[in-house]
Structures are given as structure tokens and as C-alpha cells.
Amino acid sequence: LLAPTEMSSPSLKTGAYILIGVGALTMLMGFLGCLGAVNEIRCLLGLYFTCLMIILLAQIAAALVIYFQKETLKVELSGIVVDLIEHYDPSDEDKRNLQDAWDYVQTQIACCGWTGAKEWENNEILRNKSNSEYPCSCSNRSKDLMEGRGFCNLENPLNGTATYADWPVHEQGCMDGVEEWLKDNLGIILGVCTGVAVIELLGMILSISLCKNIHSEDYTKVPKS
């Protein structure tokens, strides 16, 4: 079995922690914003504004890190995927979720391996079976995709050792497939990110406006001497 650290990436772990922190801060922010607006509490509205600003800045920082560290992330992710492929075992329930996720990627993007199907030749199970089987999620045949996971048998196995060239699988690696998917959906991704940023800016503007209104009302209620 692999140690947990072998399936981890410092950059990916950092990104996960940032997302968890942003999620927790968003929940707290929503509660404080509602409480401050209903009870007209200036300090809570100010805290709501501060939380929104921190989240917006964190999102911008995360986008910059991804953009400038994309090559490092690609290398780290490549190491994780290659290691996963080499030790892929459908009977291993401890890694079932991770393996199912990779099967889903290969099926949906119609790809095989990280850079190509050849990486699957290094899988321990397939190597012991002389590559007479291949990953079902890589297959370009619909009947294999019905299985969705695990390994499928070659219909006409060779007497000797087969290679990935004998498998009925997709030729494209998932790295190229993911990059192509991102390029095709870049407009949607940017649109969603822009929409979220606009909503956060509107929330900041509204919180400031409410604070000013509360301050004005408090000022008018002060008795003149």
C-alpha cells in the first residue's frame, strides 16, 4: 500500500486548505452580515465588509498562484497520477474513491493515462498478466465503458506479451485532454469567476451603504444641546 504522503502534493494541499478556509469564512460572513443588517449593528456590518474583502483578495491571490505556478502544479499532479496508475488495483477498497475519480476523468475526457496509454504498461496487475488486459475507462468501445472501472480482457489475446498499442483505448493523454477542456470552457470559467467577484463587490458596497445610513440615523437621534 502507498503511504498517504505519496498521494499528496504540497501545492494541492495548500489549495485545499485555502478552499476550506474560504468556505468557513463565507459561512461566518453570511451569518454576521444577516445579523448586522437585521439588527442594524455597524460593527458587524464592518466585519462583514472586511470578510468579503479578505475573500476577494484571497481569490485574486489564488488565481495568481495558479497562473504563475502552473508548471509546478502540472509536475506535481503528473507524479500523483503516474503513481496512481502504477498501483491501480480495482480490489483495493481503501483507494476506491481516488481510483473511481480517475476512471471518471478518463471516461469523460476520452483519454488514457496522463501523457498516454503507455503509462498503464507499468501497472503491477497488467504487467503480471502480460498486458492481456487494459483499463476499461480508457476504452474507445461503448461496451467496455458500461463497466466503468477495473480492467477488461483483450478479445484476441496474443501468445506473447501485448503492448498498449494492442489495446482498444484512446490515444490522447489526459493532460492534453484537460488542457483542451480548459481552453474550450475558458469563457464560462472566467464568466463565473467574474460574476462571483461582482456579487462580492456589490455586497461590500451595500454593507458600506448600510453602515453610513445607520451612522446618519444615530447622528440625527442625538439631542442637540
TrEMBL record:
- According to the record, the segments passing through the membrane are 16-38, 45-68, 188-211
Q: Any idea which UniProt keywords this protein has?
A: Membrane, Transmembrane, Transmembrane helix
Membrane topology term reads: Multi-pass membrane protein
Reading the lineage from the top rank, the first entry is Eukaryota
Return the Pfam families for the record: Tetraspanin
Chief place where the protein resides: membrane
Please indicate if the UniProt record lists Membrane as a keyword. yes
Q: Which Gene3D superfamilies match?
A: Tetraspanin
Cellular component aspect of the GO annotation: plasma membrane
Q: Give the subcellular location.
A: Membrane
Membrane: is it a keyword of this entry? yes
Provide the family line: Belongs to the tetraspanin (TM4SF) family.
Task: Please identify the protein, giving its name as recorded.
Answer: Tetraspanin
Origin species, per record, is: Emberiza fucata
